[in-house]
C-alpha cells in the first residue's frame, strides 16, 4: 500500500513514536508519503529526525498561490463536492476555538494534499492527533483525496472534544485509532453509537532491540527518575511535595524543562530538598538511558495523560514504575506487580509509594522490573502494532 501520513509539524523530538510507526510500516513493504503543514521549531539533533525532515513535504512552504490554485482546481473538478467541503469547514469552524477562517485555510491545505496524494498514488491517509491534521485529512477526503484514519493520543484532545469536532472527524473517517482502551472509551462519548465499531485500539510502540540489554539494578540509596515537560499536567510539583514527606534516603532526578521550572525550583528550596533533587533539563537519548540505568524506579505523577512513552521505555529498561491511576496507565502498569499506582493528586499516597519503593528489597525491585519489561514487550512491540494499523488500513 502507499500511505500518506498527514501531520501538523513533523518531525519533532517528542514525536519519536510517529517515526517508529512509519519506519515499521516501511519495514514490512508499505510506501509512506510524509506530508506536514510546517516543520517543527525545535532544532533537530537526532540524525533520524533530520532524515525524516528530508523526506517530508511541507504544505505551507508552497505558498498561498499554490494552495489557492489547488482550491480553484478542486472547485472546477466538482463544484458540488467542493461546496459540501466548504459547508463542512464552516460548520466545524463555528464550534472550534480557532474559527471559520482558520478552517477555510485548512480546506485550502487539504485541496493541495488531495492533489499530491492523487499524483503519488496514495490509497489511504493517516493523521496523528485529532487537531488540524485530522481536519486536513477529512477535508482532503471530501475533495476526492484518499480515505483517511487518524490517531487520537490525549489528553489535550479530551479537554476539547466539541471544539475539535471529534465526532464529525470520526464519522467521516474509515476508522479512528485510540492508543488505549481508556482513550477508546473517551472517543465513544463523542462519536455516534453507529460509529463505535470504527474506533480501534493500536498501541504506541517501542523498538525492543533498543532495550535488548537492560542495565543491572544496583543496591544502595534509592534513586527515582521523572521524565517529561515541566508543565502542570505532569504533576512534578506533587512529587516534590511528596518527597518532602519521605523519611528514607531517596534521590529524585527530574529530566525535562518547561514553563513551571522556576516554580518547581522554588518548591525544592522551600522544602529544603536541594540535596535530594537534581534538575537536568532536557537530555539526549543516551543521557536519558544513563539516568534510567542509575535509577531504581520511574515516577510519573501526572494529572492527565494518554499513555506516556516514558513509562513504556522505563519498563522496557526493566525498571518498576510509580504512577498515577489515570487514563491508560493502569492498562499497562499493574499495581504491586510492575510498580505502584496511586490516585492522581494524592500527595500522601504518592509519598507512601515512594517510601515503599525505597524500602523494597533489591531482589524484589529486580523481579518487578523484569515483570514490567516482559509486559511492555508483549503489548507494545512497534512491529506488532504497526501490523495492526496496516491491517485496519487494508481492511477499511
TrEMBL record:
Key word Transferase present: yes
The keyword Glycosyltransferase is annotated on this UniProt entry: yes
A molecular-function term among this protein's GO annotations: glycosyltransferase activity
Domain Glycosyltransferase subfamily 4-like N-terminal: from-to ranges: 20-209
InterPro entries: Glyco_trans_4-like_N
Domain of life assignment: Bacteria
Protein keywords: Glycosyltransferase, Transferase
SUPFAM superfamilies: UDP-Glycosyltransferase/glycogen phosphorylase
Name the record gives this protein: Glycosyltransferase family 4 protein
Organism in which the protein naturally occurs: Sulfitobacter geojensis
Amino acid at each position: 500500500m502507499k500511505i500518506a501520513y498527514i501531520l501538523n509539524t513533523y518531525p519533532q523530538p517528542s514525536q519519536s513514536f510517529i517515526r517508529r510507526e512509519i519506519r515499521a510500516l516501511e519495514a514490512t513493504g508499505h510506501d509512506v508519503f510524509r506530508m506536514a503543514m510546517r516543520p517543527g521549531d525545535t532544532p533537530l539533533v537526532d540524525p533520524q529526525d533530520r532524515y525524516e525532515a528530508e523526506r517530508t513535504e511541507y504544505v505551507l512552504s508552497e505558498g498561498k498561490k499554490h494552495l489557492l490554485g489547488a482550491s480553484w482546481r478542486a472547485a472546477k473538478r466538482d463544484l458540488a463536492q467542493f461546496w459540501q467541503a466548504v459547508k463542512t469547514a464552516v460548520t466545524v469552524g463555528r464550534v472550534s476555538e480557532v474559527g471559520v477562517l482558520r478552517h477555510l485555510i485548512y480546506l485550502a491545505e487539504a485541496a493541495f494534499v488531495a492533489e499530491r496524494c492523487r499524483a503519488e498514488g496514495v490509497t489511504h491517509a493517516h493523521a496523528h492527533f485529532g487537531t488540524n491534521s485530522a481536519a486536513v485529512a477529512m477535508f482532503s477526503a471530501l475533495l476526492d483525496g484518499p480515505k483517511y484514519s487518524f490517531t487520537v493520543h490525549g489528553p489535550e484532545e479530551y479537554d476539547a472534544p466539541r471544539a475539535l469536532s471529534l465526532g464529525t472527524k470520526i464519522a467521516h473517517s474509515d476508522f479512528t485509532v485510540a492508543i488505549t482502551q481508556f482513550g477508546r472509551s473517551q472517543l465513544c462519548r463523542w462519536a455516534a453509537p453507529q460509529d463505535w465499531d470504527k474506533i480501534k485500539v493500536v498501541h504506541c510502540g517501542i523498538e525492543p532491540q533498543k532495550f535488548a540489554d537492560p542495565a543491572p539494578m544496583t543496591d544502595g540509596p534509592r534513586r527515582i527518575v521523572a521524565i517529561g515537560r515541566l508543565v502542570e499536567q505532569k504533576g512534578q510539583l506533587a512529587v516534590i511535595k511528596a518527597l518532602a514527606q519521605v523519611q528514607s534516603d531517596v534521590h529524585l532526578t527530574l529530566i525535562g524543562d518547561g514553563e513551571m521550572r522556576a516554580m518547581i525550583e522554588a518548591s525544592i528550596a522551600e522544602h529544603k530538598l536541594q540535596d535530594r533533587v537534581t534538575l537536568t533539563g532536557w537530555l539526549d537519548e543516551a543521557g536519558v538511558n544513563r539516568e534510567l540505568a542509575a535509577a531504581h524506579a520511574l515516577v510519573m505523577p501526572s494529572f492527565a495523560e494518554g499513555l506516556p512513552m516514558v513509562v513504556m521505555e522505563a519498563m522496557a529498561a526493566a525498571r518498576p514504575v510509580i504512577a498515577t491511576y489515570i487514563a491508560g496507565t493502569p492498562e499497562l502498569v499493574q499495581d504491586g506487580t510492575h510498580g505502584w499506582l496511586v490516585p492522581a493528586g494524592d500527595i500522601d499516597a504518592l509519598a507512601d509509594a515512594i517510601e515503599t519503593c525505597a524500602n523494597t528489597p533489591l531482589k524484589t525491585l529486580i523481579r518487578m522490573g523484569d515483570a514490567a519489561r516482559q509486559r511492555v514487550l508483549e503489548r507494545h512491540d512497534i512491529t506488532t502494532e504497526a501490523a495492526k494499523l496496516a491491517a485496519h488500513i487494508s481492511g477499511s
